[in-house]
Design brief:
The protein has 174 residues and is mostly helical. Helices cover 80% and strands 0% of the residues. It is built from five helices and no strands. The N terminus is likely disordered.
Length: 174
């Protein structure tokens, strides 16, 4: 019994090491891409706060769905990577749209243009993801149904945090 328990503890630590390595690689990649490989437009803190907003979304979805009584399964471990990819993509779209605006305009005008262009794209993509996961909740498999419910809540919350918190930090950095 002890050998099985020790093997489980080793597996959990190995999985955590892989998760932290993956998040570290994504953090470095996000910093490089958001910075446009420019030392002038280095957005280290913007990238870190952006990834923290995704982490908050992940924790919030688990909290909300856990309070609602939904159980988790092993498939739920994939949610962090799905959410990370969706959230980082939203950050790229918003940052890229901001970088394409005229630097001579005021910050207010630049962000009006940014959210006119990027806000629509991010919102439509998020709505598509939410509808896809919401429709998938009719699956007969309980684990898949639960995963889709968690994913629906997580993607919605990620959209809210990226459009609010991340955007505020992007204004601060600009």
């Amino acid at each position: 019994m002890t050998a099985v328990k020790d093997a489980f503890v080793v597996d959990v630590y190995a999985d955590l090491k892989l998760v932290f390595m993956a998040v570290g690689i994504i953090l470095i990649y996000t910093i490089v891409i958001l910075s446009s490989c420019s030392p002038i437009h280095l957005r280290v803190w913007v990238a870190i706060v952006g990834l923290l907003t995704i982490g908050i979304s992940y924790a919030a979805s688990y909290s909300i769905c856990g309070i609602a009584g939904w159980q988790t399964a092993s498939i739920h471990s994939l949610l962090s990577f799905i959410l990370l990819c969706i959230g980082v993509d939203d950050m790229y779209v918003i940052s890229n749209a901001l970088d394409q605006t005229d630097f001579n305009l005021s910050i207010e005008e630049r962000f009006k243009i940014t959210f006119y262009n990027a806000g629509t794209n991010v919102s439509v993509t998020t709505a598509t993801n939410i509808v896809s996961f919401a429709i998938s909740t009719i699956a007969n498999t309980i684990a898949l149904q639960s995963f889709c419910i968690y994913a629906t809540v997580a993607v919605l919350y990620a959209w809210l945090t990226v459009m609010t918190t991340y955007s505020c930090v992007l204004v601060w950095d600009t």
